[in-house]
Amino acid sequence: MRSKSVRQLQSLLSQWTSITHIHCHGSEEAGVLGAIEQALDRLKEEDEFSLYAVVNCLLVNGSLRVLIDELLQQLDVKRHGKVETVEALAVFLKTHIFSEKERVKLTIVLDQAQALSSLPTSTVKSLLSLPKSISLACPTSSQEPLIRFVTRSELPWNWIHMLNTVSWPISIGFESPTEEECIDLLAEVLESDGVQRRVIEYVVRAVFFECRDANRILEIIRLVCSKYTEKHGDINELKNLKLLPVLEALNETDCFYQDENERDEPINLPLCSKYLLIASFCASHNPPATDRRYFVKFHGKEKRSDARERRAELSAEQREADAKAADLQRIKCIYLALTELYPVKAIDMNVDINAQVCALFYVFRNS
């Protein structure tokens, strides 16, 4: 259950031990990042010297310098020189964040941690060893700096490509909230708005088959209350709730919902992402035996007999049309072959494919 994972996370974050890396994984509906921020906010209220910063690794685009810039921007720390390496970051944090008088406790949250695979493995290892680096950078300090990492991804740490070579952290898996957990959570949030629990129960049970994201259900409840208030008055005074406003609110909060008068704006993908989509399609819709077409110089230009043509057509008709899972390494090879077969002028197509895969998955989940 999600509540058990939340309690485990709160227990780990409330104490400063030798654990310097916690990895939380779960779907978007599980509200993992929200649970992390809520636990850290509570810790910040109890201890004024507790700080935390959230960095979205998708925005980093495989650059350590950008990651450091995002981190220092979230910490609201001004700098006069360049901070572009982990060693320089360790010295900077020791000088500007940690001091002799106040023992600051810093938690760095790396959201969308699967995008860290676009960084070199040695860089990721060095970054996650930052707590030790700060101690080595300033050995004369009387107090050891308190710093730790919390990473968040939909995937477990050992499922993230390349990161499974880095030492494994303490992992906490979050399940999507159950119907009752969702009702309890929303009742606590909407208590200040004066929305009765029976209204929350009705809406949650009406939409739970379609949506399990607590944030979206919260938006649906507020839309339902607004629609009832405009037409009938206070929603808490109604004895019989109707389903139509709930369905209308469900549609209006759907990511695919749009007004009839609004035109759908296309998503503009980078050219390398388009090549990667084509490579993924080729790999998932064709058996590996056909990949030689991308690597043999004169493949397809040789003359074929009528019997061979008929066999090729029959084989194509019998082939299953559904896509099948393809190996990532195979997709990479086809991508590189396509960039060689169909080169693009003035554009460098030699990019980090892992980062492009993460970006395409994020576009898929949010479009």
Automatic annotation (TrEMBL):
Lineage per the UniProt record: Eukaryota, Metazoa, Ecdysozoa, Nematoda, Chromadorea
Coiled coil feature spans: 304-331
Domain Origin recognition complex subunit 5 C-terminal positions: 269-360
Keywords: Coiled coil
InterPro entries on file: ORC5, ORC5_C
One Gene Ontology cellular component: nuclear origin of replication recognition complex
One function term, GO molecular function aspect: DNA replication origin binding
Name of the protein in its database record: Origin recognition complex subunit 5 C-terminal domain-containing protein
Keyword Secreted carried by entry: no
Organism: Ancylostoma caninum
A single BP term in Gene Ontology: DNA replication initiation
